[in-house]
Design brief:
The complex is a heterodimer.
Chain A (H helix, E strand, L loop, with lengths): L7 E12 L2 E12 L3 E6 L5 H8 L7 E6 L2 E3 L4 H6 L2 E4 L11 H6 L13 H14 L15 H14 L4 E5 L7 H16 L3 E6 L2 H7 L2 E6 L2 E6 L6 H9 L17 E11 L5 E11 L3 E5 L6 H8 L5 E8 L2 E2 L5 H6 L2 E4 L3 H5 L6 H4 L11 E2 L2 E2 L1 H14 L16 H13 L5 E5 L7 H16 L3 E6 L2 H7 L2 E6 L2 E7 L5 H8 L5
Parallel strand pairs in A: 3-8, 3-9, 6-7, 7-8, 13-20, 13-21, 16-19, 19-20
Antiparallel strand pairs in A: 1-2, 1-4, 4-5, 9-10, 11-12, 11-14, 14-15, 17-18, 21-22
Helix pairs in contact in A: 14-15
Chain B lengths: L1 H36 L1 H30 L7 H19 L2 H25 L4 H19 L13 E2 L9 H5 L1 E2 L1 H19 L1 H11 L1 H6 L4 H28 L10 H11 L4 H24 L6 H5 L1 H13 L17
Antiparallel strand pairs in B: 1-2
Classes of the chains: A alpha/beta, B mainly alpha.
């Protein structure tokens, strides 16, 4: 729907933000109309967050003006933005887990009855009224940590509405939601706009933009490279605008030819960090030459499963067999030596040593062996040689083997890990969230590499919270919910809707 | 997962409650039995329990106000010791008890401000910051200490009219010197402020999730500073108690580890004022009993072993209960604005 004839509630004119050595936002102009959903698309590092942080008063623009409801504003902290009716729902929720919904909502703008005494009854009533008015079902007396993620997000929205926000900024709101929860969020967004709330919606998911946005702005390397109307756009056209060149969104692959089983998991039980049962009886088989994808909302035992497979976590009971050998109580190096490659979920914590150079990072799985080491002596020329070859082969940018890992972009960090893991003979690849938070171009590259491994008879297990990634890559899809594999589907049987329902715990 | 975890956690809490109840009933029976067989000694031990617990409660209140806002205070011992010394000197030179108590409070508060500066502004390691205060206090007080000085008077018990005449309860609760009364009031006051006021809500939010507080316009640094300074003042009161109410003079290192026991009390009390009070009473009871047993001299155990009682209790409590207490999540982490 075209809402551009409505009054403008927020306008940015020539907004520029310079950080030392970086031009994060370059002369950005935007207009938000009343009751409109304006979506911002952009890859990581395109400048979306910088732009939003300026609109929310967290950063001061280097140049340019912000106008809110016909008034030019200078904001120096979020309080100024809140006063002008701007509310923000952060990607990482800003909620105190041990407090109730009502306490979280009023925090900072408390309702008191003299002497600073909190008036909880009134606060609870206030939350009830808001949740009725905007159709945001939530129990004001519930404690945050007991609530599902989708509900916590609703609390964040209520928090903004409680502060009389009529301009909402939603930063990657669907990143943590199941498809069903995301649909619920879109319904809420539509209800809000019907009551004249205007919404800025940041995402890198093309599908969502097309289904909810009234208008779309695309950011690329700090510049607004275009605006589009959803009715005139396709996923491909938006992706091209975002990346600046042709991209192939579909993973290209031939049908799989599965051979002998490489990984067998039998009735595996694993506990999480707090000692609660996390993986509760998983059975799974991955064969050479096939990709098995594990779909599921994060926190349903995937992390613990992967850690148990790679020797990072002790399994309570059950068996893990790789290539006919039971490895349940092997340590990580023993498992690596069997030909298991691991792309860990948290690349900065478990994938790379951040203050090390690229060439050092690229031998982490083999530095102790010839030709890289002889006894306790390291052979740096061989290590650098290895780095040189891999940087070129995997197109790591900048192609400088002495650069520190911490200075690379997310996509290039991931390429370094992939390069290292694929550089030794591999029988089994365990990839957890292999493309989280990286740009479309790198995603395309890494997907290709994973498929190439499969075609060389490697057994591949991909764990991802991105449903599209699992659907695109996997030959078989196992859906994990509450520590169990609830269903295994072939690629042909797996539709978004069906997998989505399974992920939410309802049998399909 | 989380839904499965919650009932488990609750049932563990239920066990704790049942054990607590049984323990409470046993103590009550013990007290009644003791009062019937030997009323004088029982009353003396219980009255002494309350007074022995006073510096521990104050120390624990200091600790929990700070930690609830996210700052670990391991310098309670030093704050107490320095305050004890300054309060003592203030009394020696002015002859006024009230001025001396104020001096003790102010000393603690100043050291609190110093701790806040190190841990909030300089973002230093908070354990090191507290240790600095402990070493500083021990060094300065030992260096400037002169023998032969005594206080001019001592805080005397104030019986609260007819309430003090109630058997058993009267002498224990209603016939105490001022700082002991103040402590009881502070327990209730801190509980009220922490759980029923705007300040308390903000303090807890800052200690659990400072960036959540920051994004709704709460000044994290200010809340931490004020809590740590007020906490320091309360620890100062504990120091004043030692010189002006309990002993009447100053000795080197007279806090004797009470600041650390107070930390154990705070953890055992699950970071709540009433919990800390109950825990402190337990330690106070161990100390009082230990003193009484040494005086009685009927036991065939060397007095050194009996003297170990309160410290042994600290070790057992800390080893057994620390893991079950929920610590404020942001404690010990300096807050960095993005």
């Amino acid at each position: 729907m075209n809402k551009t004839n409505r009054p403008i509630v927020l306008e940015a004119k020539g907004l520029t933000k310079r950080f030392p050595g970086v031009l994060a936002n370059d002369n950005i102009n935007l207009k938000l109309h009343q009751g409109e959903i304006l979506a911002f698309l952009g890859e990581n590092g395109a400048g979306k967050s910088t732009l939003m942080n300026m609109l929310y008063g967290l950063y001061t623009p280097t140049e340019g003006e912000i106008w809110i409801k016909g008034e030019k504003v200078e904001m120096s902290n979020p309080g100024d933005a809140i006063d002008r009716g701007v509310g923000m729902v952060h990607q990482h929720f800003q909620l105190v887990p041990v407090m109730t919904v009502a306490e979280n909502v009023m925090l900072g703008s408390e309702i008191t009855s003299g002497g600073g005494r909190l008036n909880m009854r009134k606060a609870i009533q206030n939350v009830r009224d808001l949740s009725e008015q905007y159709g945001l079902a939530v129990d004001p007396t519930a404690v945050i940590e007991d609530l599902p993620v989708g509900t916590q997000q609703r609390v964040e929205i209520i928090k903004a509405l409680y502060r009389h926000a009529d301009i909402l900024i939603l930063d990657e709101p669907t990143a943590v939601l199941t498809p069903q929860e995301a649909n619920e969020l879109f319904r809420i967004m539509n209800d809000l706009t019907a009551q004249n709330v205007s919404i800025i919606f940041i995402t890198h998911k093309l599908k969502e933009v097309l289904s909810v946005a009234d208008r779309i702005g695309v950011l690329r390397s700090g510049q607004m490279v275009g605006t589009a109307m959803p009715e005139d756009s396709t996923e491909t056209s938006l992706a091209e605008l975002m990346v600046g060149r042709n991209v192939i969104l579909q993973v290209e692959k031939s049908p799989s030819k599965p051979k002998e089983p490489v990984l067998q998991i039998q009735n595996l039980h694993v506990r999480d960090d707090r000692g609660h049962a996390s993986v509760e009886g998983v059975d799974l088989e991955v064969r050479a030459g096939e990709i098995v994808g594990i779909a599921g909302v994060e926190g349903n035992g995937q992390r613990e499963l992967v850690e148990a497979l790679t020797g990072l976590r002790h399994a309570d009971s059950g068996k893990i067999i790789i290539d006919g050998r039971e490895i349940t109580h092997f340590n990580p190096r023993q498992i690596t030596e069997l030909g298991v490659a691991h792309i860990p979920e948290d690349r900065e914590k478990h994938g790379l040593v951040m203050p090390y150079t690229l060439s050092d990072n690229m031998v982490l799985n083999k530095y102790f062996k010839a030709p890289y080491a002889k006894g306790v002596i390291m052979h740096h020329d061989k290590i650098d040689q290895n780095g040189q070859v891999l940087v070129k082969e995997y197109d790591v940018r900048p192609p400088n083997i002495h650069a520190l890992a911490q200075n690379l972009s997310g996509g290039n960090k991931q390429k370094v890990i992939v390069a290292r893991e694929f550089s030794t003979p591999t029988k089994l690849l365990v990839a957890a969230q292999p493309t989280r938070g990286i740009d479309v171009g790198s995603i395309e590259f890494i997907h290709k590499q994973i498929v190439a491994q499969r075609d060389q008879n490697v057994a591949v297990l991909v764990v991802s919270a991105e449903l599209d990634e699992v659907l695109g890559l996997a030959d078989r899809i196992a859906v994990m919910f509450d520590g169990r594999i609830v269903k295994i589907l072939s690629a042909a049987e797996a539709t978004r809707e069906r997998v989505g329902l399974l992920m939410a715990g309802s049998e399909a | 997962m989380t839904t499965a975890a919650v009932p488990k956690a609750r049932s563990r809490g239920d066990y704790a409650k049942i054990i607590g109840l049984i323990f409470g009933v046993l103590v009550l029976i013990g007290i009644i039995y003791g009062y019937i067989t030997n009323p004088v000694t029982t009353t003396a031990v219980l009255a002494s329990t309350l007074r022995q617990s006073t510096p521990l409660v104050l120390g624990a209140l200091c600790g929990l106000i700070g930690e609830r806002s996210g700052v670990i205070n391991i310098g309670i011992e030093g704050q107490m010791l320095m305050a004890a010394f300054i309060a003592f000197l203030a009394n020696v030179y002015t002859g006024n008890l009230f001025v001396a108590v104020l001096a003790g409070f102010a000393t603690g508060a100043v050291l609190g401000a110093f701790l806040a500066f190190m841990s909030v502004t300089l973002k230093m390691d908070q354990i090191i910051g507290g240790t600095v205060i402990n070493i500083l206090a021990l060094g300065l007080t030992s260096f400037f200490y002169q023998t032969g000085l005594t206080t001019q008077g001592k805080m005397q018990p104030i019986p609260l009219g007819p309430l003090a005449d109630i058997p058993l309860i009267g002498p224990i609760f209603f016939d105490n010197p001022p700082i002991t009364y103040t402590t009881l009031i502070l327990v209730m006051l801190v509980h009220y402020v922490l759980f029923y006021t705007r300040w308390g809500l903000r303090t807890r939010a800052v200690g659990e999730h400072p960036s959540a507080a920051d994004t709704v316009g709460i000044n994290v640094f200010k809340i931490r500073y004020i809590n740590v300074i007020i906490g320091g003042g309360i620890a100062g009161l504990a120091g004043a108690y030692l010189t002006l109410e309990a002993v009447g003079s100053f000795e080197r290192a007279m806090t004797n580890g009470r600041g650390f026991v107070a930390l154990a009390v705070m953890i055992f009390g699950k970071y709540t004022p009433f919990g800390a009070w109950g825990a402190a009473l337990l330690f106070g009871f161990a100390t009082a009993l230990q003193t009484q047993l040494q005086f009685a001299g009927q036991l065939e155990i060397p007095h050194q072993f009996i003297g170990m009682l309160p410290y042994l209790l600290t070790i057992i409590v800390l080893a057994g209960f620390v893991g079950r207490t929920r610590v404020p999540s942001a404690v010990g982490k300096p807050y960095e604005k993005e």
